[in-house]
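WARN  no MSA supplied for this record, continuing single-sequence
INFO  ligand: iron/sulfur cluster
INFO  echoing inputs
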Amino acid sequence: MPKMRTGWITFTCSEDSTIVFLELLNKNFFDWSERMEFVYCNALKKSGDVLKVRDVDVFFVEGAISTEDEKRKLEHIRSISKYVVAIGACACTGMPSSQRNFFDERTKSEITPRLEKFCLFSEVQPITKFIKVDDMVMGCPMDEKAFVRTLGKYFGIFKV
Ligand code: SF4
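INFO  complex generated
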């Protein structure tokens, strides 16, 4: 029986939801590996260039967007995925990764040379600013139970 083709990626963030996910594998690995295959997940295997990935059933996206490169990858993910799920507060709302958006003008001008040096956007944005998402798992890091519920919903959709 075909497994659910799954992706997991992190953008601008602390990757703590990825750690929560890896912890969940301690008790769910054998069950979940019967139902899903990872076509992209750097936390589990070297996954290469996400721009070459195709035909994903569900892509989980952690973190906010702060560069043109991240934006391009995110838009690609949307174009090759049946469903995209925002993981954690940074992906869903931008915060706390976007806290520099709210610096005072003086502090903003102090950090501008660094933003230019590393080709960073002047403001960090949630992924929802650039693409439509099908689900959000809130929390900082993500709420474990909400994630398991959401994953179960997609197991149901893909009948795995
Ligand atoms: S939501 Fe919290 S845990 Fe998740 S990436 Fe952002 S800061 Fe880290």
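Strands lie at 4-10, 36-41, 56-62, 81-87, 135-137.
INFO  checksum written, moving to next record
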